[in-house]
Amino acid sequence: MADWGYGQFCPVAMASEVLGTRWTILVVRELLCGSHRFNDLRRGLPHISPALLSKRLRELEALGVVRRQADPDTGTPLYELTEAGEELRPVIMSMGSWGQRWLESQLSMKNLDPSLLMWDMRRNLNPTPLPRDRVTIQFLYHDVTRGQAKWWLVVNNTSEQGPIDLCKKDPGHDVDLYVVCDLRSMTAIWMGLMSVQEAIDTGKLKLTGDRKLKASMQTWLGLSAFAAETKRVSA
Question: Which SUPFAM superfamilies match (predicted)?
């Protein structure tokens, strides 16, 4: 896969040659998180170029880690992990757990990205405690550029197309809950470094709207899969 190599027969070295190229592990991470369409993969990897993403997918397909097939409805490519790819799940999760425990949070908090944060919250959100009717939640970040400041999560537990939509443009629904916060604080909440109540108590988070939605935000908000990991280094 790579143009370089370690020149060792050790399985660790050979696996590193496959997974060590730039973006490859993150492409696998996105597939493990449930992204199967090219555009969805790009939403989870906003800084990768389309050409490089296509290249990495082809390489992983050639190695038998990824399988490509056509969507029966649209004919567009769908990507999924093979058995070999699925076996990387504990590897990727262990890497994430290690990073959450042993790397200082300042390192990750330097890389704030509202689009990636909202995409992660959208796919991890728990719709179960929300009402069966449609719920619209607007996020307003007061410290980012205008085009990245407003986001809407529309949750419809009765929808057959999927219960959660993420919108950058006003979907035209009445808003049930307004969430006003700075991007750094919301990222800290998502990463498990701060609770919703702590953010409210310190004035970093303001909730306006439905009382039940406000009270249950910590329950329905989609957190990082590693949010429960305990830090082993100073924050």
Answer: SCP-like, Winged helix' DNA-binding domain
